[in-house]
Amino acid sequence: MEPIFKSEDRIWYVTGTSSGLGLNLVTQLAKKPNTKVVAITRNPAETKSRIDPELLENVFIIKADVTNEESVKESIKQTMEKFGRIDCVVNNAGFGIAGAVEEISNEEMRKIFDVNFFGLLNVIRNVNPILREQRSGFIFNISSVAGWLGLGELSAYCSSKFAVTGLTISLEQEMAQFGVKVVLVSPSGFKSSFVDTGMSLPKNRIDVYKTDDRCVWLDDIVNNARGNPDKFSEVVINISESENPPKNIFLGTHAMQFMRGWFAAQTAELEKNLPITIGTDYENAPKIEY
């Protein structure tokens, strides 16, 4: 089957599009001329119902489960059959569990990694050959400031996003030689439905951690979130049109506050422990500048 592709169209492949930032991005992309967006979702009817009917001609909704590699492969196959190429990939699918490490079961930890990390990996592994052959394209991996900071209330979520951060930094170095640009996006709080629809609590609650109280804490975060989803989408779209895009970008004033404090604390700790750090070398090892 020949791809139904117009050379002026730019093709986006976005996961996690039934709500939140993913749905907003699909909507904003669908408004752009010469742009088609493939919306990957487990709930096509839900995604479709939330998009302006006038924009649907620019949206190709595919039911797929990112945790199932065969499902991901099929969605990419359908995309290529219809459009013949993929220009921008946005790995946005994800969810969270609010709970202490002791409360999180292996099953719950594996589930969050299956979506947040391995789901993203399934997409990357199967889209990379296309982008390599094209010698062009963008991959946006949506992490979080929680992928840099340890937050006691979100141990499982942080762990999965730390993994995304590490993978993305490595992936950028691997794909640059093929002309493929990889961008790590780490937002702080944005007003979305993530806490309502994408956050859960562990089955095993331990009273001393006051886990149930975290629902109130998370609601406060959302209610006081400064991030505008429209501006999130605008940034991602603008970066995709840049000749020299950032490799890593934080979004939100809170992200800047958090990360400045975190980097300063890590630098201070490094300097404090410097004698111990360099003291572990062999005594006769060649001296190097640090």
How are the SSEs placed, and which strands pair?
Layout: E1 10-15, H1 20-30, E2 35-41, H2 44-49, E3 59-63, H3 69-83, E4 88-91, E5 96-97, H4 106-134, E6 138-142, H5 155-175, E7 181-187, H6 194-198, E8 199-200, H7 214-223, H8 229-240, E9 248-251, H9 253-272, H10 274-278
Parallel strand pairs: 1-2, 1-4, 2-3, 4-6, 5-8, 6-7, 7-9
Helix pairs in contact: 1-8, 3-4, 4-5
Protein name: Short-chain dehydrogenase/reductase family protein
Pfam families: adh_short
Family: Belongs to the short-chain dehydrogenases/reductases (SDR) family.
Account of the 3D structure:
- This is Short-chain dehydrogenase/reductase family protein.
- Belongs to the short-chain dehydrogenases/reductases (SDR) family.
- The protein has one domain: NAD(P)-binding Rossmann-like Domain (Rossmann fold, 3-Layer(aba) Sandwich).
- A 7-stranded parallel sheet has the order 3-2-1-4-6-7-9, with helices on both faces. Strands 5-8 form a two-stranded parallel sheet.
- It has 290 residues and is of the alpha/beta class.
- The model has no long low-confidence stretch (mean pLDDT 91).
What integer value in Å does the Rg equal? 21 Å
Strand count: 9
Using the coordinates above, name the CATH class: Alpha Beta
CATH superfamily: NAD(P)-binding Rossmann-like Domain
InterPro entries: NAD(P)-bd_dom_sf, SDR_fam, SDR_oxidoreductase
Family: Belongs to the short-chain dehydrogenases/reductases (SDR) family.
Organism: Dictyostelium discoideum (Social amoeba)
Protein name: Short-chain dehydrogenase/reductase family protein
